[in-house]
Sequence to fold (140 residues):
Amino acid sequence: MHFQLISASGVKYDDEAYEVIVPTKDGSIAVFSEHMPLLAVGVPGVLSIRKKVNDNDEQLEHFAVYGGILQTEGNSVRFITEDVTAAEDISEQESREALTRAQKLVETAGTRETLAEARTVAQHHEVRLNLARLKKRHHR
Fold:
């Protein structure tokens, strides 16, 4: 199937894939060739791409996504998101430090609006940290 990962800053992935694992509000779903037509809401999490049928889990390509829309139609699959980060662009230490700072913002938020913003930032950095840990585990 053909998979596209599209963000506000451009196309991040545009190639053939055997399987795409997408975080949705109902849990992660695996999409394969000829998947039934689907429009689903993506949530913050790790999106994974298995390029070939024989690729093992260590060969998956991972991206941090922060919500978006999944669309499948025949052999065409597209995930459209505002922001996406590739695994190689994430540092575990920087992500951990950023998450700690964001959690402090959550604790000290004075208004509902500030709290909602702080939670969004914390969730963003939690996804990045999860991806950094996944990357580290696969490169041992």
Notes: The chain has two domains: 2-87, 90-138.
